[in-house]
Design brief:
34% of the residues lie in helices and 25% in strands. The chain contains 13 helices and 18 strands. Bound molecules: 1,4-dihydronicotinamide adenine dinucleotide, the ligand N[C@@H](CC=O)C(=O)O and sodium ion (NA). The ligand N[C@@H](CC=O)C(=O)O is lined by residues 136, 161-163, 190-192, 198, 203, 307-308. Sodium ion (NA) binds next to helix 5. One of its GO terms (molecular function) is homoserine dehydrogenase activity.
């Protein structure tokens, strides 16, 4: 019998417990696929005695998770703690520094420190794997690193946050309130420890920055992701979108365009969008994620599945362990860190799109004319003024409209013209419309 691959696991929350259950349930199948047994030998978390519904007695325990990396009986470290810095990063550095492969589900850490960790891994010729960090159980990291590697990718976009998708699709189906549905997503284990990361789009931005690096061979640039969350989307917007033939989804999108000198510029953005009901992303409900990758030879590929939750995320973590058991190292970002290109951020103002705009305005004559004038002066052409109805929040009036296709900067300019107007009683909401 070949030597087992011996695992040290830090973090015994939703994902950590899922990994232990999977290693136990699929033990024989994993050994067959990996060519050797995969054995958990030691664990670490904040509280040794918390009830988790699993028996930890077969495993060693470390109060200090970084000690897992130093144990002689640990071959591979699995980090399922979370947080971009702090103990997760200390552990990651300790593992790779000790020449041990690292598997992590921590997109925050990879988005912020992935390049430095990858350099460390490459210098030691050990694996750094993070399939679970992007879109949970969907093999999209592997898909882009291996499956599409013969292509020049034109664009990568999709739904990368299960919590937001659960909130938006549940609000759509049941009309339930935002806070109530967020509570459900937390209870189901989809949300981050701090759910602000989910609802403000930061988690999706972490994942997008990772996909952009792998898909375009770019150095990770998380700070350049233009990010808008879903907290300002109201039930009324979801209802308006429905009337118009759209659903609202948090869409992450990245592509590369040349600037005037021909140098590649990277656009990365996360924002709620109106998605036509006929689009494949419109039927993505609940905590499901979906990633579209458009290759110059493959055409449009759609990766879809559970983006969060115990089982699917554990599935991705253990798939990485199988690769390591098979001695598959590979560059963490597909090509060596030194070969990744530094791409300046793209400016999207010239890009053409249709836009949904929602204004909350004072109920008095002349307000609509003022908005229409700002649109005209900025060169925005209004396709339809959808509704004028009482908004949910008091005596104001809700005005929603859809623009004809035009440069993005014109809508920005129109909103700038309206800034400070006492006709507007709340900040307008701008949702781009995803083309078919
Ligand atoms: N829950 C999900 O659906 C998914 C989670 N992830 C990622 O997986 C990682 C783990 O997520 P969850 O299991 O949901 O988190 P969790 O909050 O359920 O579990 C975290 C575990 O780490 C331990 N921990 C946290 N801070 C610690 C500290 N300072 N010292 C010692 N132990 C500490 C906790 O005691 C707990 O055992 C995170 O990076 C998360 O972003 C990735 C994909 C999906
Ligand atoms: N909080 C994340 C968990 C998976 O990455 C999400 O909701 O998608
Ligand atoms: Na994944």
């Amino acid at each position: 019998m070949p030597d087992p691959l011996r695992i040290g696991l830090a973090g015994l929350g939703t994902v950590g417990v899922g990994v232990i259950r999977l290693l136990d349930t699929n033990r024989d199948l994993l050994a067959a696929r990996a060519g050797r047994p995969i054995e958990l030998v030691a664990v670490s978390a904040r509280d040794r005695h918390r009830e988790r519904g699993i028996d930890l007695s077969p495993y060693g325990w470390e109060d200090d998770m970084a000690a897992l990396a130093q144990r002689d009986d640990v071959d591979v470290v699995v980090e399922l703690v979370g947080g971009s810095d702090g103990p997760a990063l200390t552990l990651a550095r300790a593992a790779l520094g000790a020449g041990k492969p690292l598997v992590t589900a921590n997109k925050a850490m990879i988005a912020h420190h992935g390049l430095a960790l990858a350099e460390l891994a490459e210098a030691r010729d050990v694996a750094l794997k993070f399939e679970a960090a992007v879109a949970g159980g969907i093999p999209v990291v592997k898909g882009l690193r291996e499956g599409t590697s013969a292509n020049k990718l034109e664009r990568i976009y999709g739904i990368l946050n299960g919590t937001c998708n659960y909130i938006l699709s549940t609000m759509e189906d049941t009309g339930a309130d935002f806070a109530e549905v967020l509570g459900e997503a937390q209870a189901k284990g989809y949300a981050e420890a701090d759910p602000t990361f989910d609802i403000e789009g930061i988690d999706a931005a972490h994942k997008l920055a990772i996909l952009a690096a792998i898909g375009f061979g770019a150095r990770i640039d998380f700070d350049a992701v233009r990010t808008t969350g879903i907290t300002r989307v109201q039930a009324a917007d979801i209802a308006q979108a429905d009337t118009l033939g759209y659903v609202i989804r948090l869409i992450a999108m990245t592509d590369v365009e040349p600037d005037e000198s021909g140098a590649p510029r990277l656009l990365q953005r996360v924002r709620p969008c109106l998605v036509p009901k006929s689009h494949p992303l419109a039927s993505v409900d609940g905590p499901t994620n979906a990633v579209v990758a458009e290759g110059n030879f493959s055409g449009r590929l759609l990766f879809q599945g559970a983006g969060a939750g115990e089982g699917p995320t554990a599935s991705a973590v253990v798939a990485d362990l199988i690769d390591i058991a098979r001695d598959e190292v590979g560059a963490p970002f597909s090509i060596p860190v030194a070969s990744l290109a530094k791409m300046a951020p793209a400016e999207p103002g010239h890009r053409m799109e249709r836009t949904y705009l929602r204004f909350t305005v004072a109920d008095r004559p002349g307000v609509l004319a003022e908005i229409a004038a700002a649109m005209r002066d900025a060169g925005v052409s209004i396709e339809s003024l959808i509704q004028k109805a009482r908004s949910d929040d008091g005596g104001d009036v809700l005005v929603a409209m859809v623009t004809h296709e035009g440069p993005e900067r014109c809508v920005t300019q129109a909103l700038a013209l309206l800034e400070g107007s006492d006709s507007l009683t709340a900040q307008p909401l701008v949702l781009p419309i995803l083309p078919d």
